[in-house]
Amino acid sequence: MKVLVATEKPFAAPAVAGIKGIIEEAGFEFALLEKYSEKAELLAAVADVDAIIIRSDKIDAEVMDAAKNLKIVVRAGAGYDNVDLEAATARKVVVMNTPGQNANAVAELVLGLLVFTVRNFYNGKSGSELLGKKLGILAFGNVGRNVARIAKGFGMDVYAYDAYCPAEAIEAAGVHAVANQGELFAQCDIVSLHIPATAETKQSINKALVGTMKKGGILINTARKEVINEPELIELMAERTDLKYITDIMPDADAEFKAFEGRYFSTPKKMGAQTAEANTNAGLAAANQIVGFIKEGITKFQVNK
Ligand code: 3PG
Q1: Which residues, judged by CB distance below 6 Å to any ligand atom, belong to the binding site of ligand 1?
Q2: Do domains 2-101+275-296 and 103-266 have the same CATH topology?
Q3: For 199, which of 23, 131, 226, 237 is 20 to 30 Å away at the CA?
Q4: Residue 279, pLDDT score
Q5: pTM to 2 decimal places
Q6: Test site for ligand 1: of 270, 274, 277, most ligand atoms within 8 A of the Cβ
Q7: Mean pLDDT for back-to-back runs of 10 residues, the chain (305 residues)
């Protein structure tokens, strides 16, 4: 039984060592492919593996066909839009994620980016504070809940909307629930996106929605670039010179956004989950889930059926 860790963006070294330990302890063979630049390298590395641990690495039908023995793919992280679930199901390959394991890391980055933004990217000019500002959290999953927890520590007034989470559950977490995403954008000073990239959400953050934000509104995206309608957001930011867009996922139109000096910031590479702790939490969970599946058939956290 051979398990491959295939990560274009590598895990921290202690996480890799921990994964290797779990895999070898189970009597399986461990293999590592890091920082690869060509898909051909991935196709060659999967040839004889039974299981793969990935991050945002793309696992499509071609990769699965190159992995003749493949039984399971675990996305060490939350979003699994990088795995072709239909192709996996058709080939009887189980796909899992490790929900919640890297949520705190992403949430800490959100608040860090917000402080950076309201202090004018640390350029020395007088900025503003987060205390008392209305923060809207779009989707109240693991990351959204952690953002709420930390934002409350900053004294922010926290609101949330989640199409799949009842208002009572949001209120139970000490957060104001609003009726829909339109209300969230219209009421809040800052909106933080935590929605997955699905057929429903892709391009859904558009001019009509963001355009309802109050003067000086900040949109922060640590979710997926695909949820943004980039041409519309660019059009809006050209008209509304008060709005800011801060993101951890570089937009396709990065060069155009860069024209909005002082109102746009993107990390060079998605780094929300890029901490030793998150890598260890997610990586070890992925390794344990593979061992549990191979040895005992445990399919908890399976995301395809
Ligand atoms: C996730 O979905 O878990 C995050 O976006 C982290 O992605 P990464 O593992 O590519 O950093």
Answers
A1: 9, 55-56, 77-79, 102, 270, 272-274
A2: yes
A3: 237
A4: 98
A5: 0.97
A6: 270
A7: 98 98 98 98 98 98 98 98 98 98 98 98 98 98 98 98 98 98 98 98 98 98 98 98 98 98 97 98 98 98 96
Of all protein residues, whose CA lies closest to atom 9 belonging to ligand 1?
55
Distances (CA, A) of 206 to 187, 232, 246, 247: 17, 6, 15, 15
- Distance in angstroms (rounded) separating the CA atoms of residues 294 and 35: 27
Which amino acid makes up residue 134? Answer: K
Element (H, E) at 75: strand 72-75
Q: What is the CATH number of domain 103-266?
A: 3.40.50.720
What fold does the segment set 2-101+275-296 form as a domain?
Answer: Rossmann fold (3.40.50)
Cβ 53 vs Cβ 95: under 8 Å: no
Q: Where are the domains of the chain?
A: 2-101+275-296, 103-266
The Cβ of residue 166 has, within 10 Å, a number of other Cβ atoms equal to 11
Instruction: Tell me the DSSP string of 266-278.
Output: E-SS--TT-SHHH
What's the token pair of residue 53? 């641990």
Question: Within 10 A of 242 (CB to CB), how many other CB atoms are there?
Answer: 12
| Pair of tokens at residue 252 | 């396709």
On whether the CB atoms of residues 15 and 7 are closer than 8 A, the answer is no
What are 213's two structure tokens? 């934000």
Residue to mutate (ligand 1; options 11, 54, 55; most atoms within 8 A of CB):
55
* Amino acid, single-letter form, for residue 17: A
